[in-house]
Specification:
The complex is a heterodimer of chains A (341) and B (283). Chain A is an all-alpha fold. Chain A has a single domain, classed as Formate dehydrogenase/DMSO reductase domain (Formate dehydrogenase/DMSO reductase fold), CATH 1.20.1630.10. Chain A is built from 15 helices and no strands. In chain A, α3 (69-83) packs across α5 and α5 (112-137) crosses α6. The longest helix of chain A is centred in the last third of the chain and has 33 residues, at 220-252. The two termini of chain A are 37 Å apart. Chain B is α+β, with helices and mostly antiparallel strands. Chain B has a single domain, classed as Alpha-Beta Plaits (2-Layer Sandwich), CATH 3.30.70.20. Chain B is built from eight helices and ten strands. In chain B, β4 and β5 form a beta hairpin. The radius of gyration of chain B is 23 Å and the shape is globular. The N and C termini of chain B lie far apart (72 Å). The relative contact order of chain B is 0.20. Classes of the chains: A mainly alpha (341), B alpha+beta (283). At the A-B interface, α1, α2, α5, α7 and α9 of A face β2, α3, α4, β6 and α8 of B.
Amino acid sequence: MTEILRWQHRRAPGEPVSAETRDSYYGLPVIHGPHWRWSIVFYFVLGGLAGGSAVLAAAARLVGGHWARPIVRAGRYLAFLAVLPGPLLLIIDLGRPERFHHMLRVVKLRSPMSLGVWGLIGFTATAFLNALQQAAEDGWLGQRNPAAHFLRRLPARILAAASTLPAFFLAGYTGVLLGATAVPLWARNALRLGPLFLCSALSSAAAMLALLVGRGPGNARARHALERVEQVALLGELVLLEAVQRGSGPVVGRPLSNGLEGWAYAGTRLSAGVALGLHIVTKMLPRRLRPPLRLVASLVALGDAFLLRAAMMFGGRRSAEDPAATFAITRRPEDPARQAR
Amino acid sequence: MSRESTLVGRTRARPGAFGFLTDTTLCIGCKACEVACKQWNQLPMDDFGFTGMSYDNTGDLGATTWRHVAFIERVADREGRRPTRLQPFQSNWLMLSDVCKHCVNAGCMEACPTGAIIRTEFDTVVIQQDICNGCGYCVPACPFGVPALSPLDGKAHKCTLCYDRLKDGLEPACSKACPTDAIQFGPVHALMDRAKARVAELRAQGVEAQIYGDEALGGTGGIGGLNAFFILTAPPEVYNLPAAPELPQRRVLPAFLTTALAALALGLATLVTFWRSKEVRHD
């Protein structure tokens, strides 16, 4: 529920009203920001984790050999478990949760939220089937059970391949969803948010799976492969974080450079850099120092995924309240104020 | 003739579309439209507050405020010069009765994942209250800040252009109540012709009037014009209106394409990494 709006106006002390009215309406917001808060942030993080681990499990199943089985196993379970709270987090955020099924009335190709609902259902279905087959293979459903027998006989490679498309979709559509709004920070970065969330999804999933696969001697190769993927994804994320900051400019990018949201964004960049740096440095250190450092790197990468979603969500909320940011993206091209910027 | 000027006064409104022309040069700031809207639509009162900056204590459009009169006291112009004489049809106040623009291509409607937001037979945009589940996506999807979630019932609300009154052949409550005809209701194309004539008349008297809500100003970026449009005498930013807003859904396809490209790159990188993975002798 939204709280009743109470007026705040941002005239600096000692400034005349005219200073504000010159370029905006008493500094009041032009657009309405979203009401989304923590439940959506957690959904974004978990959706990324689920999508990323499904992608990694599928890739491990398709091209990995016997050594990659721990990734397949942990990835299939994690993909399903991480997506389970998703619908709940979304439903409690609705103004009328009992009407959640109204989302299933329509499919709208230009509404990322409508597509997202169907994508979430598609992902949950494939993740469920993959996890069920894994459970059957692990003997959790009994050895003689005919259902378990049937599940084990399902073509695992096809199941893996079928899960990749909804997995990538789930990990990335949230960025597109934010970009398709009038919120200046998101609108300005519409093309970058999807790839950014994808990178973060993959790095967090690789980090989580590396933690789950564990330190056993038989798992070293799997863990190394995961850490390599994590590094690639972190590198991509760092590049995109820089691109978002630069592309936003000084006015739209204000929530990225100061305030609590700015700290969160700086923390995102720092943690991505630290996680990547630790992975690289670890290789040069004595062997007994490596496991704890790798553990730290993976934990930092997981925290990074959370910080990124929180910084973008609350940064967007703040930029919606800033009339200068809205006008920065909606001024006419011939307006001198736009050219000056 | 520049591209800009060919768009002036042009709207993609469908034939038979109904809308508002709000002529700010005729507005006297009486707020009769706000009151009439509240009365007819039985909207609860707002949180009473004192904004402390102008006669405008309404502040903004919201879930229970579907007309909002903005008051701009012209203390000085952009260069800081104080006004010394009055222009025709101008006091040193600007007043604008803001309302849902009922966009020709509406961001809120395209965003709505439940299909609760529909386009009516009058070409207006209405939120069906029995369908809306309060997801809140229409709220940031509107480039003008019109829809809002109500803390009272958890659903999104905005101006319906008095759909119930239109059904009975009546004009909307606000335009009916307007004592100076600053708010005019009618077919969009007829209103647009009237607006063009009015702007020409004002300009002949030296007033910097312009139409806000055609494809050149306000209805830009794929919005295709606003069915509820305005005559302004100052830059739109002064009234808290964006000059060149964009339909947010125009970004959906390009954004999905870059995301797909990133997915392809990351997927390939993962496959290659797993493919080329070598036996690890030591940890």
